[in-house]
Write the structure tokens for this entry.
Amino acid sequence: MSKGFVIWMTGLSGAGKSTLAGRLQEELVARGRGVDVLDGDEVRTNLSKGLGFSKEDRDINIRRIGYVAGLLARHGAAVITAAISPYREIRDEVRGNVSNSDGRPGFVEVYVKCSLDELMRRDVKGLYEKAIKGEIANFTGVSDPYEAPLHPEVVVDTETEDVEQSVAKILRALEALGYLDGAPLERFADPALADGLPRLQVGAREEADLYMLAAGALAPLRGFTGQADYDAILAAGRLASGSPFTIPVTLRAEAAPVADRIALWRDDRPLGVVEVAEVYETRPDEEAQAVFGTTDDAHPGVRVLRESGHLAIAGEVVAFGHPPSEFPAYDLTPGQVRAAKAERGWRTMVGFQTRNPVHRAHEYLQKVALEMVDGLLLHPLVGETKADDIPADIRMRCYEALLEHYYPAARTLLATNPAWMRYAGPKEAVFHAIVRRNFGCTHFIVGRDHAGVGNYYDTYAAHRIFEDYQPGELGIEILRFEHTFWCEKCGAMASSRTCPHPKEHHRTLSGTRVRELLAAGEELPAEFSRPEVAEVLREAYATDQAEVAG
């Protein structure tokens, strides 16, 4: 069982406790921890309804929060509380009552500090001003005392620090106290590290996996999947620790390495180093059925599995950089995306996975989501896909044209995802959600037949799989969207949930029909594609046809 602990955030109203708690929860989930958040306002509504704001009632409320937090921590949970908890004596009482699963104290007090002047500046409801005028009684920090901690484990000052700086400070403290592994999420090194090491030649897929692991995009994995995790993923869609994870990330080989440290190479380029922890036999048939839902060799993912080595080399990795790319301006690591999110002041961000140009139905889903969140991460997959998928360079030009003309620049971010496509349907939908969580997304869009291919998965299998996981367990909220289309009667984009008209009024285009129109030099319908995107596709298709003819 993991070591449980309680992160007790205390500070004045408006200091940023709830914001920090939410961001810290994302980071802990990304590191493989189950996290429960006890927010002061939510506890008062659900656990302490009827209590007032006298000292006695406040103490009762804090004791209740402390009791629940301690109970969860003793069973191995990481618990974050975000309550004003103004009185030092009751906080110290809770500290004394909290212990983790091995009986040692597991209480980490975080003082969320902020000056009264700054709190008043932030207070759009004017509560502090009313309290100063005497219009609100028992207001902590004004008409009721707040006793700052004397010896907190962490002090964060939200007046001078941004959210990322404060969260980093808390994480460093948790690492120093032994509650978190101190390994950084990003693990990059100098290529000289490969000098003298035995070499293993790999391909594009392994290079992409190596980079994703080293960049922290596949956290909590820190290396290629070991046998315990491999077995657990196939059996339950989880790691051996219990953390959700649905696709093994394996380094396949035909023979076991002769050293406990090997360098991965692609032709004449060193890619990174693997610390070999174990080598084990994979079970291709069982893996194919568990991940792809089929053992049919016609499935592209199953075919790749069959063509790979029967042994898996497991171990932690470092990488020497990003795979060669035509899009360096968009090749952002998870840390860089998180930093961009913070710079824009986004508290919430929705991720959108795509391996196709964005058509009107995609645009509709993204903009519906943007009505609910602060920003959109358009995160196209640019690793290996099927031969008949539209090449990444053409898709990137389509994305640029669409964002330039039809999206608010301040609320969108375009970045590449160098992963390769597995076509694992529902299992890959969860996998993609975990990746976007690690890139800082709080929400993720899952449409019809997400990551599907052929007729292997039913339309909404990728929706139903998320019912296998408890709310909050993935660390990201899933936005499920049904089939969308242009309705002639509505005169707009709609979905099966919003349109009352029969199917004969719905306009959609298959990929085959799009290619036929492009081959004939015909216009793509406006209800399918924006004209700027259609022009990029038409030019690219004409160039391709001319090269074939020439």
